């Protein structure tokens, strides 16, 4: 704990030297309150929550998920609507929803899901788990995240049931998602999305400067949507539709998310961050 406090003070001093924010140490309950304030000021965020960096793995994701669930419990009004993105971290959130969580919240999948026996990552599964945990309401989206081809994706996205769920997602008060690892980076081959993309699409994404994705929607280093053949196969909210949702929360951790996170936050794709200390420092000093 002492080491963490020392590292935070180093970050704070560096932020002060760079003129990012005027900071004073309070010693309040939140150990990274000053880093959070600096992030809010630098990027014009609605809020920021920073947790200790525990390194890669389950414990680190759980730490971010716990903090995100705590933030949602205080930020949501009763009867609010939350659109859910595809993310390992977001999939953990329902387990940390406390009894104080607002009632009557609607949870809506913002995209289709992955095929296979393990549905835990799928937004409609997370929406159902959230609703069960909080006595809320959920909506199902019986569609894959990635269609076989553009024509199939268009047909599936255009049917009445899917269209109605995605309409509700577009009209949500809050969107919450993780963010993908850097496209083509060292962790890319382990990404859930990687097996869905064929060689021609991989080449096109690389040629168009893809940085990372949010629920299958790729963006470049400037946070702009990357159009192309793969994007036409995605069933879910577009980046522009996500951008229209008032509160857009990213919950993520790990060094492989630093560059994608910087691109997305700088472009305004998210306006609330729940991240680990290492990513907070990377954002402040990019």
UniProtKB/TrEMBL annotation:
One Pfam family per UniProt: Sugar-bind
Tagged with keyword Transcription regulation: yes
Record keywords, A-Z: DNA-binding, Transcription, Transcription regulation
GO molecular function terms attached to this record: carbohydrate binding; DNA binding
Stretches assigned to the Sugar-binding domain: 34-284
InterPro entries: NagB/RpiA_transferase-like (IPR037171), SorC_transcr_regulators (IPR051054), Sugar-bd_dom_put (IPR007324)
Family assignment from sequence similarity: Belongs to the SorC transcriptional regulatory family.
PANTHER family according to UniProt: TRANSCRIPTIONAL REGULATOR LSRR (PTHR34294:SF1), TRANSCRIPTIONAL REGULATOR-RELATED (PTHR34294)
Name of the featured protein: Transcriptional regulator LsrR
Organism whose genome encodes this protein: Trueperella bernardiae
Organism lineage: Bacteria, Bacillati, Actinomycetota, Actinomycetes, Actinomycetales
Gene coding for it: lsrR
